[in-house]
Request: fold
Amino acid sequence: MEFNYGIVQLKSTTKSHVFLIPDTKGYTLIDASYPNDGEKIIDELGKLKVDLKKIHSILITHSDWDHIGSLKYLYDHLNAKVYCSKTEYDNWMGKCHDYSFIPEKIKQELLELKKIMTPITKDMIGDFKVIKTPYKFHSHGMNMYQYRDVLFCGDMVQSVGKLVPIISKYNLDNKIYLQYLREFNITGIKTICPAHGPSVLATE
Ligand SMILES: [Zn+2]
Reply:
């Protein structure tokens, strides 16, 4: 699926989307899907005729396993720098969810990824506006990224063709979460791209 500005929602990552954005320096990826999707992602980028050397950044919204699962593979196959929010970095794979279902080997690999992360401390990263969500919101400190009038909102909301809140059991603090949703100002945003479900126009 292709949006304005040549943005692509990769087809190979339907359960947790990875987005490819052509920007002024080359390409940026948003998030890294579940484990074992890396090969499919690289394959799809090849089919899209993306020069892999030009992917300079991977922006991670938060450190849930469905967003960093294939990050190691992508990091090893690309020449990209990887970024996340400072609070997410400080609480890498923190106590957001019960991860007892993840095989220990995979969990250890994902924990190790902290070493390759660069925490973002500025309001802009390249062409992207960085929008921090509150501490203990959905994850510990998820970042959303805005490119022009397109918002990559991670797990702020999910989509079922229209935007719906993330169910309460996935939120560290549902009260903070719902209040943030109510107060979030979408001025200047035309398209919202959640990690889960189809993207929607901000007016819908
Ligand atoms: Zn998610």
